[in-house]
Amino acid sequence: MIFVEEDASELAAVNPNILDNVDLQPLNTLALPARARHFARIETVAQLVDVLRWAGSRQLPLLVLGGGSNVILRGDWPGLALQIALTGKSSERHEDYADVTVAAGESWHELVQWTLQQRLYGLENLTLIPGTAGAAPIQNIGAYGVELAHFLRCVRGIDLDRLARGDASVIEIAVESCQLGYRDSIFKRTLRDRFIITELVLRLPTRFEPILSYPALRDYLREHLRGEAAANASDDETAALQVESAVRAIRRSRLPDPAQLPNAGSFFKNPVIDGARFALLREAHPDIPQFPAASGVKVPAAWLVDRCGWKGRRLGHVGVHAQQALVLIHYGAGSGSELLDLAAAIQADVQAAFGIALELEPTVYGA
Ligand code: FAD
Ligand code: NAP
Fold first, then answer.
1. Is the CA virtual torsion 169, 61, 39, 134 positive or negative?
2. Do 8 and 39 contact (CB within 8 A), yes or no?
3. 112 three-state secondary structure
């Protein structure tokens, strides 16, 4: 990361969209303290291109933020931080499906509500996930047995390498090329911090087909709606709304609200290990939970963390949530480094106890 030393106020004067020395604490749900040397809130694609050219000419490192619900800011940001606030959504309806185009800065949760109002289905299980639509492909968001990958058609955006060569056109990447996997995509790998998503196209069915594979969801519906009402409700709209409100209620009862207890959701990915290794682990730990995964056996990371005695523990200003071992909390007055030290201690214990390397789910920024 290199940036040319110039007087900050002089730089800002060159581009009215850019602010200097901006506090990022309110812009990340962990409420970690960090300041950006330069900052721009992006409301149009033209403004984005303009600001990117400005940063490119100064070789400033870029930090792209949506809702800040899946980032760990380790310290101040020496370059330009962008808050993607592009808005707009539309749908093109066909008999069996509709193509929904949504701008990157739209709230994901509000998009889910809007699609249901349009009688378009599929996103119910993904309700209440914080953050923006533009960030959804980055880790192929998923919950309760549904992933964005089921509905994404393509993403559009600006490729910084092309922009550096003078090509400022919006590029389209088809879903087949997004390398979407379990909490993973090309945007976390070769295109990390290189491709800025400006909009997505989703294809959503006009008929509702409930996905009730998660016991928590099935049990909730059974208990609250007397039987599997969601699957049998008289019309699609009612059934879909029942599932959406069930997911919302379960999430509210289990997950800490970042506004009250700053967090970034799941801090670790669920490890996927091969069948032979799992069989050995099971001999030593007969009660270890498992779920089938494409490349082996998925073990809930929360169980591993809990077994190592971390659930509910607090170290200084950070800790592990008392009900959700996968959620790390910043209690205030702490730092990204303190949080990452806690994560490293948990990772070391899980490695020692189970021989499994837990991977962080959020992306870390800062020196
Ligand atoms: P940010 O945190 O702002 O950014 C995340 C990453 O995406 C960063 O690397 C950033 O640079 C990049 N990025 C953001 N916008 C763009 C863009 N337009 N172009 C290019 N790169 C971009 N995740 C799930 O998958 N399932 C869940 O059920 C879930 N539940 C959660 C519950 C809670 C309480 C919290 C706090 C988080 C949860 N998350 C969940 C994680 C998080 O909400 C998602 O990953 C979400 O998609 C992040 O969106 P964001 O706008 O906040 O992204
Ligand atoms: P849960 O229902 O208590 O389940 C615990 C773990 O077991 C989850 O991680 C889940 O994996 C897995 N699991 C449970 N039932 C499964 C099934 N039938 N098939 C496959 N895997 C199964 O989980 P929770 O913590 O309350 O979260 C509920 C859902 O919301 C999960 O899908 C979770 O991923 C999602 N969520 C994600 C975040 C985040 O930040 N990424 C935060 C909160 C909630 P999966 O995680 O692979 O689904």
1. positive
2. no
3. helix
What token pair was written down for 297?
């056996």
User: 144: CA distance to ligand 2 center in Å?
Assistant: 6
Give the tens place of pLDDT for each residue, 233-270.
669 999 999 999 999 999 999 999 999 999 999 999 99
CB 343 within 8 A of CB 320: no
Query: How many residues are recorded in the chain?
Result: 367
| Active-site residue flag, 361 | yes
**In angstroms, rounded to a whole number, what is the distance separating the alpha carbons of residues 144 and 127?**
10
As a whole number, mean pLDDT of residues 167-173 equals 98
- Ligand 2 pocket check for 258: Cβ under 6 Å: no
Long-range CB contact pairs, 287-294, < 8 A, 24+:
293/182, 294/182
- Helix and strand numbers (H, E) in the chain are 10, 20
- What is the percent of the chain with per-residue pLDDT over 90, rounded to a whole number? 92
pLDDT of residue 231: 53
The secondary structure element, H or E, covering residue 290 is: none
User: Under DSSP, is residue 224 helix (H, G, I), strand (E, B) or coil?
Assistant: helix
Cα of 268 vs centre of ligand 2, distance in Å, is 12
Tens-digit pLDDT profile for residues 334-362: 999 999 999 999 999 999 999 999 999 99
Query: Which of 183, 185, 203, 244 is labelled catalytic?
Result: 183
Mean pLDDT of the chain: 94
Given this model, what pLDDT does residue 6 score? Answer: 43
What separation in Å is there between the alpha carbon of 362 and the centre of ligand 1?
8
Counting ligand 1 atoms within 8 A of each CB, the residue from 86, 138, 200 with the most, and so the one to mutate, is 138
Mutate to test the pocket of ligand 1, among 70, 171, 257 (most ligand atoms within 8 A of CB): 70
